[in-house]
Amino acid sequence: MLSADVWYRGLTSWHEGAAFLLGDSGFLAPYRAQFEITYRCNSFCRHCCKKHTPQGAKDLPPDGLNAADWIALAHSLPPYTLITITGGEPLLYPEFERLLDGIARRRVVNLLTNATLLTDELIDRILRRRVVLIGAPIYGTPERHDAFVRAPRHYEMAVENLRRLRARQRATGKRRPLLDLKVVVHEGNLDEVDHFVALATELDADFLTFSLAYDNPVMLSPFLKPDLSPPEFRQQHPFGPRDPAARREFAAVFSRLRQQRGSGRTRFRFYPPFPSAESAAQFFLSPADGPGCMRRCRGPWGNLVINPAGDVFPCLSVKVGSVRDSSWREIWRGAAFRDFRRAIRAAGTLPACWGCCYVAVDFPASSRSDHD
To answer: How far is 67 from 76, CA to CA, in rounded Å?
Structure first.
């Protein structure tokens, strides 16, 4: 039987492919909507695209939408649109419980959280609602994790809360939400891959998702540009290992994981997607010319992001409208979003797309015999 992940990726690919063939007008409504409900956070991750630090984050958009705004927005989207609630740390949103009840009572949602603030009451609330997946980051062993997020005891709190979530699911017979442990791999934690696998097995995680650290000022950044004209969009930004020895080590580890595919019930996933173990190895061993090995992007035909202020952007940080001024449908079919799609259609991908989670990395010579 095909897994939920395979079904979802297949339907997403079909939707974006059909929308792409139908042109740039936004004829088909989005398949994914990401609600960044707040930029408040109690972690200060070193790779964070929101640029949180222990000293604070300057000039981040405030929480401009209340719970009623988010709920109304969610209910106006088509029933098939998967809503992801994220931040910042979404559990710090002042009206989080009201927002969750209002959206997830009727809509299917994913929740991305660092899991440090999950209480027993909130766990029970989540289990009563239509939350299909919780994604939680793990960056290493306890000491390395806490050093990476620059916050004490965050590993201990997160893992203990996830244990209680899974125990409560077993006690109530609830299969959902699925659990996705998210790992940002870099030179400092590559030797801890076995720890990640062991933790995923202990928690009976459904997914262990590996991604690579990047430093990109125009990908999912809160600081939106008016269009694609700034030079940052024509530049390839640091992504993945640069040192040749580190690249060889990454190639060996990622190709092994890609061949292994999973541990017990836990399925391994990779951002960016690698269609084969060979493509994973070749990605790290090839010259860092980036976009040359990226498949054509169709994300802007199926995806939109709304930040705490209500501003809308596709993926790269280009403002295409605001839900405070217009409906999502007007923005989705509006001139700014159409112009963005035309630019991506013409280019395939932009240099700034290098490292995107949704654009598969592949090479003409790669074997695709083990493609999912």
So the answer is: 14
Q: Are 99 and 35 in contact (CB under 8 A)?
A: no
Within 8 A by CB and 6+ apart from 182, the residues are 135, 136, 137, 138, 209, 211
Q: Which amino acid is at 80?
A: Y
Check pLDDT > 70 for residue 291: no
198-239 pLDDT, tens digit per residue, is 999 999 999 999 988 888 889 988 899 999 999 999 998 887
Tokens linked to 238: 């640091």
Closest CA to 134 of 106, 173, 169: 169
Taking the CA atoms of residue 127, residue 129, residue 135 and residue 141 in that order, the dihedral angle to the nearest 10 degrees is -20
Instruction: Please tell me the chain's helix, strand, coil percentages from 3-state DSSP, rounded to the nearest 5.
Output: 40, 15, 45
**CB contact at 8 A, 135 and 34:** no
365: which DSSP letter? T
For residue 225, give Cα distances in angstroms to 37, 220, 311, 372.
20, 11, 11, 36
Residue in 13, 55, 49 with CA at minimum distance from that of residue 31 = 13
Residue type, 276: S
Gap between the Cα atoms of 357 and 318, Å rounded: 17
Report whether 208 contacts 327 (CB < 8 A): no
Confidence tier at 290 by pLDDT (50, 70, 90) = low
CB of 154 within 8 A of CB of 54?
A: no
Domains in the chain: ranges and CATH? 4-353 (3.20.20.70)
The predicted structure's pLDDT at residue 1? 40
Torsion sign across C-alpha atoms 326, 330, 335, 339: positive
Distance of CA 321 to the CA centre of its chain: 22
Secondary structure of residue 225 in the 3-state scheme: strand
The Cα angle at residue 255 between residues 162 and 349, in degrees rounded to 5: 90
Residue 183 pairs in a beta bridge with 210
pTM above 0.85, yes or no: yes
